[in-house]
Design a protein that fits this description.
- By secondary structure, the protein is α+β, with helices and mostly antiparallel strands.
- The strands form four sheets. Strands 3, 4, 5, 6, 7 and 8 form a six-stranded antiparallel β-sheet that branches.
- Strand 7 and strand 8 form a beta hairpin.
- It contains twelve helices and twelve strands.
- It has a domain of about 190 residues: Orthogonal Bundle (Transferase(Phosphotransferase), domain 1), CATH 1.10.510.10.
- The longest helix is centred in the middle third of the chain and has 20 residues.
- The protein starts with 6 loop residues before the first strand and ends in a 5-residue tail after the last helix.
- The N terminus is likely disordered.
- The structure holds adenosine-5'-triphosphate and magnesium ion (MG).
- Magnesium ion binds next to loops.
Length: about 350
């Protein structure tokens, strides 16, 4: 990945985009949506880029409605051994329905590309809003941490690990509510899995140590996100991924003076290397996090947040000028991938069930 320039924040902190990928899980359903591509107008801008393709703004001609189209080059998917991951991404997105998870509208392919057609989330990346603000006030961080907690609670109840929490994979809708996108690393598990994947800054110690990992990795990542929202930079940082891993394993967290005591307490309890002590991974599950003082002291109404979030005013209100506005997304260079080669017939077989 890393097609966006590395960004420099607060002097020393910078992070490229994207992460490592490992093997995926098997099992797919029959694809659908043929013919959709010819009815999509792709004149709009690129919303984001990734390792094997890009996400583009698209208009569905019959209705004029906007969508986000994730396009993955088959050559890259095969070369990077991501066939199963991509099929899992599609299959999981099809089964998940949650107010804070992006909706998949359809999936289809041609001889060069795979396409995931999603609802267009107009407010842009959480990443951009966080960088613009520098850091978020306690209430703002708490609001978004609550939405992510509800997403993980739901995914984990379906035995799905998300495994790629970071500000680049969170979007804001027109009212400023959160939508989780990018299920490229997500996985359905029974108990534990052994794949090395994710983004260095957000990796839990048990992933780095290849101990086998479960739902607890997502709660660890929530601790990192909480810290990054409140500080403006992640807790374990180094120019070099190996340096990041070392700091994660050392586990020393320095809190800026402005963190309140409840947020510090929750972050420490999430960023606990010992899995038998990490909050979220204990007998009470997600409930322990929801009951924590950081949320409780602000009277977070979990049921309203889950069942009637539109009645809650989000702390950020993205500037939106019409439903086709793309100004909240950064500019990416135009596509230079017109020359992508179709893959041979044997490799095409791999995608028969996408
Ligand atoms: N539904 C959507 N609406 C608007 N923008 C989106 C949507 N989905 C993704 N994007 C934008 O495209 C970017 C890349 O999408 P995504 O994270 O799914 O791909 P990726 O990082 O390339 O994935 P992978 O990690 O699978 O390579 C996101 O960071 C976001 O900016
Ligand atoms: Mg992504």
């Amino acid at each position: 990945m890393g097609s966006r320039e590395e960004e420099h924040f607060r002097g020393s902190f910078s992070r490229g985009r994207g992460g490592l990928r490992g093997e995926g899980s098997a099992g797919v359903e029959v694809g659908e949506g043929e013919g959709l591509l010819s009815r999509l107008v792709l004149e709009g801008k690129t919303l984001g880029t990734g390792s094997f393709g890009r996400v583009r703004f698209a208009t569905f001609r019959p209705t004029g409605r906007p969508y986000a189209l994730k396009m993955l080059k088959k050559t890259e998917v095969v070369f990077l051994k991501q066939v199963e991951h991509v099929k899992t991404e599609k299959k999981l997105l099809e089964t998940i329905s949650h107010p804070f998870v992006v909706n998949l509208m359809g999936a289809f392919q041609d001889d060069k590309n795979l396409f995931l057609m999603m609802e267009y989330i107009i407010g842009g990346e959480f990443f951009s809003h966080l960088r613009k603000a520098g850091r978020f006030p306690n209430d703002t961080a708490r609001f978004y941490a609550a939405q992510i907690t509800l997403v993980f609670e739901h995914l984990h109840s379906m035995m799905i690990l998300y495994r790629d929490l970071k500000p680049e994979n969170l979007l804001l809708d027109m009212d400023g509510h959160c939508k989780v996108t990018d299920f490229g690393f997500a996985k359905k598990v029974e108990y534990r899995t052994w794949t090395l994947c994710g983004t260095p800054e957000y990796l839990a110690p048990e992933i780095i140590l290849s101990k086998g990992h479960g739902k607890a990795v997502d709660w660890w990542a929530l601790g990192i996100l909480m810290y990054e929202m409140l500080a403006g930079y992640p807790p374990f940082y180094d120019e070099d991924p190996l340096g990041i891993y070392q700091k994660i394993l050392e586990g020393k967290i320095k809190f800026p003076w402005h963190f309140d005591r409840h947020s510090k307490d929750l972050i420490k309890k999430l960023l606990t290397a010992d899995l038998t002590k990490r909050l979220g991974n204990l007998k009470g599950g997600a409930e322990d996090i929801k009951k924590h003082k950081w949320f409780a002291s602000a009277n977070t109404d979990w049921s309203q947040m889950l069942n009637n979030h539109k009645s809650l005013q989000a702390p950020i209100k993205p500037d939106v000028a019409g439903e086709a506005d793309t100004a909240n997304f950064e500019k990416y260079p135009d596509s230079v991938d017109g020359s992508t080669q179709p893959i041979d017939a044997r490799d095409q077989e791999l995608f028969a069930d996408f």
